[in-house]
């Protein structure tokens, strides 16, 4: 089983919205064979809490406007360090870059197929020099 067309469309809209607000390292995984509760994860990060909130707002706005989707659950907004938007078909994780490095969701889901994102929806990619 692979992610449905609906889930893939939500992934595309979420990734493009995150990219519009300068999210970093946007990646999506098809987790449909591993989980029964959702079909795809979208992961992205930002260097500060304010930008995390801006990305969250844009993702919610664009998913509502372009796909008629509303989150069934929203967690973590109070601290602005890691916000989870659950749309049932997909889950969007918007993390502060420190939390992303610490929790390493990519390591957990690396065996799942990566979903191709449009070129403009991949966000800024960090390089090893960014670590200094």
UniProtKB/TrEMBL annotation:
GO terms for cellular component: cytoplasm. Functions as a ribosomal silencing factor. Interacts with ribosomal protein uL14 (rplN), blocking formation of intersubunit bridge B8. Prevents association of the 30S and 50S ribosomal subunits and the formation of functional ribosomes, thus repressing translation. The keyword Plastid does not apply. Keywords: Cytoplasm, Repressor, Translation regulation. Its main location: cytoplasm. Interacts with ribosomal protein uL14 (rplN). The keyword Membrane does not apply. This is Ribosomal silencing factor RsfS. Gene3D superfamilies: Beta Polymerase, domain 2 (3.30.460.10). It is found in: Cytoplasm. GO terms for molecular function: ribosomal large subunit binding. GO terms for biological process: cytosolic ribosome assembly; negative regulation of ribosome biogenesis; negative regulation of translation. The gene is rsfS. SUPFAM superfamilies: Nucleotidyltransferase (SSF81301). Belongs to the Iojap/RsfS family. PANTHER family: IOJAP SUPERFAMILY ORTHOLOG, MITOCHONDRIAL ASSEMBLY OF RIBOSOMAL LARGE SUBUNIT PROTEIN 1. HAMAP family: Iojap_RsfS (MF_01477). The lineage of its organism: Bacteria, Bacillati, Actinomycetota, Actinomycetes, Streptosporangiales.
């Amino acid at each position: 089983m692979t992610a449905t067309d609906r889930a893939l469309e939500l992934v595309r809209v979420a990734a493009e919205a995150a990219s519009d607000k300068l999210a970093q390292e946007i990646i999506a995984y098809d987790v449909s064979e591993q989980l029964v509760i959702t079909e795809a994860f979208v992961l992205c990060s930002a260097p500060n809490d304010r930008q995390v909130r801006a990305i969250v707002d844009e993702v919610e706005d664009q998913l509502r406007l372009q796909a008629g989707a509303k989150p069934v659950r929203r967690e973590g907004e109070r601290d602005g360090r890691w916000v989870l938007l659950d749309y049932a078909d997909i889950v969007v994780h918007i993390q502060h870059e420190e939390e992303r490095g610490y929790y390493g969701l990519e390591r957990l889901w690396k065996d799942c197929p990566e979903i191709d994102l449009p070129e403009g929806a991949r966000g800024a990619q960090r390089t090893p020099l960014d670590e200094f």
